[in-house]
Amino acid sequence: MQDELNTDTNPAEAHPEKDTMPSLEEALKAAELQAAEHHDAWLRAKAETENMRRRAAEDVDKARKFAVENFAGELLAVKDSLEAALAVESPSVENLKDGVELTLKQLVSAFGKFNLHEIHPMGEKFDPHQHQAIQMIESDQPANTVVTVLQKGYRLNERTLRPALVMVSKGKDA
User: Fold this and answer.
1) Angle between the N-to-C axes of helices 69-87 and 93-113, in degrees from 0 to 180, rounded to the nearest 10
2) Mean per-residue pLDDT, 60-81
3) What is the pLDDT of residue 22?
4) Rounded distance, CA 79 to CA 164, Å?
5) How confident is the model over 69-76, as a mean pLDDT?
6) CA atoms of 172 and 141, how far apart (whole Å)
7) Is 124 helix (H, G, I), strand (E, B) or coil?
8) Do the Cβ atoms of 132 and 165 come closer than 8 Å?
9) How many angstroms separate the CA atoms of 72 and 65, rounded?
10) Is residue 152 assigned to a domain?
11) pLDDT at 16 over 80
């Protein structure tokens, strides 16, 4: 009977699922390995994020520094023309006028290339986003109509850089 007890109590035969279960040490090693892999991946992702943040900050800084580079390059031609006009020994009034007109065309062309446009609102309805009213005057025009432009305004890409200085009609009833 003793032999029967020994054969019946063989642990491998009594609990066959115990052989397929990893030992606690193996499970711990596997978990530690997986944790180390996750930690390494996290460190790499963190470093990549920091590198991207640094590169983006450098790009923004460069964009801020050199945002007007192309515009400035266009204005150099205007400056050169003005200097050439001043360098002439004995210019005639007609030559100076022609030179100033050509220089103005260069400047207008440079403005156009960079989407800088005039605001000249004569006869338009007053718009406080684009106009600055200096005075209201009697006029046959409807109320709040621009009747005099004292200084042109300018708009850059749909944003008002400088509002037009205007006089606005009071209207017939006022």
Assistant:
1) 180
2) 90
3) 77
4) 26
5) 91
6) 7
7) coil
8) yes
9) 12
10) yes
11) no
- Domain boundary pick from 66, 88, 104: 66
Total structural domains in the chain? Answer: 2
- 0.85 exceeded by pTM: no
In angstroms, the CA 145 to CA 147 distance is 6
Count other Cβ atoms within 10 Å, centred on residue 28. 11
Cβ(144)–Cβ(169) under 8 Å?
yes
In whole angstroms, what is the distance from residue 170 CA to residue 120 CA? 20
What is the rounded CA–CA span in Å between residue 71 and residue 107?
10
Residue 133: strand pairing partners: 166
Write the single-letter amino acid at 151: Q
Contact yes or no for 146/122 (Cβ under 8 A)? yes
Distance CA 61, CA 48 (A): 20
* Spatial distance between the Cα atoms of 52 and 46, rounded to a whole number of angstroms: 10
Name the residue range of residue 36's domain.
15-66
Enter the tokens of residue 70: 């192309």
Measured distance CA(161)–CA(154) in Å, rounded: 5
Domain assignment of residue 58, yes or no: yes
